[in-house]
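Q: What structure does this chain adopt?
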Amino acid sequence: MKIKLIALDLDGTALRSNNTLSHAVAEAVEIAADHGIEIVAASGRPYHSMPESFLRLKGVNYVITSNGAAIHDRGGRRINETLMKKSEIEKTLSLTEPYDLIWEAFLLGATYTDNRYLRDPIRFGCTPAYVSYVQNSRGGLDDMRRYIYENRSQLDSIEYVCTDEILRESVRKILEQNLKETYITSSSANFVELMHKDATKSNALKWLCERLDISPENTAACGNADNDADMISCAGLKTAVANASESCKKAADVILPSNDNDGVANLIKLCVDY
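A:
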């Protein structure tokens, strides 16, 4: 198996838990580029929240954002998108009206969030290492439900943040039972993310493979969360880091060291040695 493309989730996978990129991973990515391997960042983040430390690395020519809702090239040009259906957003707002949730919306690569979350991210489950990222990457609004409704024709995705597990999962179950054109996933414990049913990391990876004339068998993928499992499943070399969720690990054939122990660097060494 000759690996020609490696798709990497960022948060909790290529990035350490303190939201930084290690020297070992950065060096490994550029070594892969020297061997002619395409490196694809595949993140739940929208484009304007992607870490420059990773995007500027040699070989990172494509970026899958918002869990597959949009794909950008190295220059930031949006080359593919799969927007949410307006009717599904309207239904989501109706179904969740009784609940006081923190909503976020991704539109054209930018993020908008509830001012309550922006003022105090830790209160809503954000780790200290990501507070600065949250507060510097989002626009804050007092009425997110209204913003989502007014922009329902052009949203990449929406998500709600909830630290109450019972409430979070009960709302998710309601949405899963009623939304037929929406993909629902999670990139971390307190987030539930919604996008078009075709806006997945796996579909974005397949689209890139067709564009680049690379067989999925000649790809590798690595992640750490539920929203990475489908992408891992469709890759030729299926890997997850040791800190991954159970569903993510089940999709993988190889479990690498954790994100804090340069698991991605180990993956790239494996691919280069192929």
